[in-house]
Write a structure and sequence with these properties.
By secondary structure, the protein is of the alpha+beta class. It is 63% helix and 12% strand. The protein has four helices and four strands. It has helices at 2-74, 93-105, 123-143, 168-174; strands at 78-80, 111-116, 151-157, 176-180. Strands 1-4-2-3 form a four-stranded mixed sheet. Strand 2 (111-116), helix 3 and strand 3 form a beta-alpha-beta unit. Helix 1 (2-74) packs across helix 2 (93-105) and helix 2 packs across helix 3. The longest helix is centred in the first third of the chain and has 73 residues, at 2-74. Residues 23-45 have low confidence and may be disordered.
Length: 181
Amino acid sequence: MQAKQLLKYLVVVLPMLTAACSTTTGEDQTAGTNSSETTTGAMSGNDDGVEVMTLEKKRQMEIEAEERKQAALRQTNMLFFEFDGTSIQAKYFEVLEAHSAYLRANPSAKVVIEGHADERGTPEYNIALGERRAKSVAKYLQNLGVMSSQISTVSYGEEKALDKSRTEAAFAKNRRAVLVY
């Protein structure tokens, strides 16, 4: 008889104990989960914050490096041309991009493009050649988005030679366009 009563007692009490234990455990787990979520969230927030700050800092460093590069490229203000040519050489594309970026960012800035020629050829021809060189650079800058109102051109022909010696190297120096701000 006592075994039957003990069995009945266990059948009634055991589920209650299990339920009680699971409820308590559930509350603890919920509290623990919330606690860990909060901690995780805070850590994620911190982690995200750190990552964001790191990415922002990295991006800022990239921007500063690009600005230094652009400023260095803008130091180059002379473009040289082939004999009797007005085509811009590929090595100057990056330089002109830096100048155009500056001019686009500063709409009030203006540039004068001076065209020059070596002393071979008639004065009239050299004036026209210098003008075509200056206009070639101006057109390139306009194609990069610079407003035409920011650009003016002038041709000096052979008048302002960098090197007055009559060597091929001197002639090459004098075939140029100069960007003057």
